[in-house]
Amino acid sequence: MAASIGQKLSSVASRTNSLLKKTVKLTEHTPCACPYYSTAAKRLEHEPRIACRTSETDPRKHTGDHVGLYYTVPEEEMAVIKTGMHPWHLRMMKSFNESCLMVRKPALELKGYLDKLNLKHPVPRFLLYGRRGSGKTLTLHHTMQCCHKDGWIIVHAPWAGQWVRGWYKEVAVSTYKPDRYDLPADSAEWLTHFRAQNLGKLSELKTTSEYIWTKREKAEVGTSFEEIINFGLSRLKFSSDCVGVLLKELRVQAETQGLKVLVVVDSVNAFYVQWNQQNALKNMEKKQLRPGEISLVHNFKKMLSPTWSHGVAICAVSEEANDEDKREDFTPIYLLGQEGFEALDPFIPIYVPDYTEKEALSNINYYIDRNWIQNDYGKTDEGKRELMFVSNRNPFNLAKICAQL
Amino acid sequence: MAGISPWAVKTVHKGTVSSRRLFVIFAHKRFLEFRAQNVVRLSSAPDGNDRLHIAPVTQNKPTAKAVTISKAMRAYMEQARAYDDKMKSEVADFEIGKRHLANIMGEDPDSFTQEDVDRAIEYLLPSGLYDKKARPVMKDPYEIFPKKKAAQFGLDGRPYHWMYFTILPNYYSALYEITWKLEALKDLEDQMRAENRQDEMEGQSFNTASSEWVSLQALKTKMVENIKEKEYKHFVTLMERLASHPLSAREKDFIMEWRVLLQSEELQSAVPEVEVEEGGRMCATASGTRKSSNAIVKVYMPGSGKFNINGKDLTYFSQNLYRETLLLPLVVSGLLGKVDAEVDVELGGPTGQAGAIRLGLSRALLAFVEEDVKEKMRLTGLLTKDPRKRERKKPGQQGARRKFTWKKR
To answer: Where is this region: Disordered (chain B) (predicted)?
Structure first.
């Protein structure tokens, strides 16, 4: 009996050995001759060049071959996405001394849809969903840069949660409708962001109807969008109304002027679910406000309804926009709730997955290239495997872990 | 030599003719004879140790003198009789009680074992008491009542054991035995060297790698004597001397009586069996526990590093710390990314669950690694169960250790 078990074990051991001796190399991208854009310290000659970049900086030309590779966003286009970017990303880019984004599959999928779109139809809605930190926001940025190159007008809400929470915020009763509430500071901020993203395109656009602010102040027919924005920035009281005016004019003129309008809303579920008791916005009577009562949210919701054409709405749902006890799942139907799902339905869901092994390796290699990973063990195959295991190949998690190495 | 009586040895010894060893030989022989002549009393006791219970069956030869019984002996005999009577009745009670219990449980009284008794007691008298020692129990009386040392001297007041006056007869006779064996080995060595057979001695020394000497506590229990630290050291030194002799493997059985196996040796049996599934994929199953969590881990080889924990992947653990816990066995065994694991884990919190999975994973991985890696894993502490548990709250205190705030008034 003992002998047979011994025999069995030894045979297993030999089989195991044969498997163990097979050293499976991690499959990386093959090196390509890509230019070195950075002004950072020059690479040493003897260092092997790790393939993690592509020289194709035009996001419109990215194909499936580029998936997992980093491309450099030129300075002038960086200005477009910069204002809407999370400070965390900006800090990372500053540390790396260059602004690079990874080409991901969902972005390509989205671009494929946009290329084949018939703009005459009512606005189609795309909804990105995925785990926390899987790259939904950067996918949006990738797409925005793409559309910016194509000359689209971009209407971008970087983080919808900002408009429904905060106990320190100034909340004013709307000058347009008394049962609605304005957020003057947020509206002004958004106007600046809108102006920065569409620099040079707004002066040609004129209003098509008259808007009366007060008895003495009004915007005549034919006022340029620039002027509306300037007015909103100088008279904060009307900044929310200015946002409403701009959005309405865009909806009306998109078809007549032949515009292409890209509406991007990050963490759209903030529009449809109630934020928690402590930090939800409150009016002067300390009454908690529903998202729909806030004029900014109200106006943006109109942009998401299929009542106009020559536009596209791309949204992302995120767990962070929901209350802490409503973050069990990351699917749109769970995060949006009944109301949100009905409002956005029908939409095209796009899943943003965590990194594949190739993408994760490319990311780690990029960090090594940027000296973000300095630990020698982190540069070995085993170290990379451990990083991938602990982070579970989640991009944000990987970045957090690598920050300590 | 055989014709010389033990008493003659003494004479020889007192003369200067014979060596001391001669005395040793005879004394040892006498010791063995003594052991053979005496039978073991209380042999029904489960762990009856012959060192403890040595007592003669009436061996006193009829003498012309009137038998005088010393006072101490008389007192002892009374005590012993009382003890014996008590134990006899207890044993009878226990046997009857066991039969009753078997009848209550509707089982055959003749084949009712101690395990059945334990099960029956737990069923009939369920107890929620925290301390297991405080719960009702029914066991052989010899296990429950403290043992009593049998009389060490006969009716005439003469001690049975020839080392009685050393106070620690068992201890010193053990030392004696060791010395004797060592001397014998030395003789043998001399003889082999004289016959030029040194090459036969290769590999004849005892391998101490997988075991260690019994602890002082264990030695005390084994000898039933109050052995001190100093005496224990003396014992170990002597044993070391025996074990390091080039021919010590000949006395392996004797040496192993005084040694306990290390964990690694026990582990050999703990390696899970490898099953081969359809498609030639091997898998091994093991379980692990930590705190109050239990995990059953099934490891597949070859794999690609996929984890399935209660139907989720590694996101089952939200914190990196817990994933790192799982990482360690894979890194130490060098199987990271080469195996898949299917985990069923229940109870407890994330720390306990991660620890339980780690233990189960390490045990399951044993099936796929080499001997040296197994040893490495053991040394890393992967195969050791973390015995810590939540400590109970005590009455009159705020928690397990914390006291209520003390207020003067």
So the answer is: 383-409
Q: How many domains does chain A have?
A: 2
Average pLDDT over residues B121-145: 90
pTM for the predicted model, two decimal places:
0.67
- Strands of A261-265's sheet, edge to edge? A153-157, A261-265, A311-316, A125-130, A348-352
**pLDDT band per the 50, 70, 90 thresholds, residue A229:** very high
Same domain, A131 and A258: yes
Within a domain: residue A5? no
CA A13, A19, A22, A25 dihedral sign is: negative
What's residue B67's pLDDT? 63
Return the residue matching tokens 């808007």. Answer: A211
Question: Which residues in chain A are contacts of B324 at CB distance < 8 A?
Answer: 390
Structure ipTM over 0.90, yes or no: no
Q: Which comes out higher in pLDDT, residue B151 or B261? A: B261
B330, B331, B368: residue with CB nearest A16: B368
Amino acid, single-letter form, for residue A38: S
Would you say residue A211 lies in a domain? yes
- B235 neighbors B171 (Cβ within 8 angstroms): yes
Residues in B 348-367 with any Cβ partner in A closer than 8 A: 367
DSSP H helices in B224-349:
229-243, 252-257, 263-267, 320-333
Pick the residue from chain A with its C-alpha nearest to B275.
A12
Nearest one of B294, B273, B301 to B359, comparing CA atoms:
B294
A293 and A342 share one domain: yes
pLDDT in tens, A235-293: 998 999 999 999 999 999 988 888 899 999 999 999 998 887 778 888 888 888 888 88
A167 and A289 together in one domain: yes
Q: Give the sign of the dihedral formed by CA B243, CA B245, CA B249, CA B250.
A: negative
> In whole angstroms, what is the distance from residue A265 CA to residue A340 CA?
13
Q: DSSP assignment of A7-47, as one string?
A: HHHHHHHHHHHHHHH-------PPP--------SSPPPTTS
Nearest to B290 by CA among B343, B344, B354, B365: B354
Report yes or no: A59 and A71 within 8 Å, Cβ to Cβ: yes
Domain spans of chain B, in order of start: 6-56, 71-144, 164-261, 274-380
Count of CB atoms within 10 A of residue A404's CB? 7
- CA–CA separation, A229 and A207 (whole Å): 12
Mark which residues 148-187 of B lie under 8 Å from A by CB.
none
Boundaries of domain holding A158: 120-351
Fold held by B274-380: Ribosomal Protein S5; domain 2 (3.30.230)
Strands B293-301 and B340-346: antiparallel
Q: What is the CATH number of the domain that holds A207?
A: 3.40.50
Residues B276-300 pLDDT 10s: 888 888 999 999 999 999 999 999 9
| Amino acid present at A31 | P
**Stretch B46-67: mean pLDDT, rounded?**
49
Identify whether residues A346 and A363 lie together within a single domain. Answer: no
In a shared domain, residues A281 and A385? no
Cβ <8 Å between B369 and A16: yes
Token representation of residue B234: 């003396």
Residue A30 has pLDDT above 60, yes or no: no
Q: Is residue A87 part of a domain?
A: no
Cβ–Cβ under 8 Å, residues B384 and B322: no
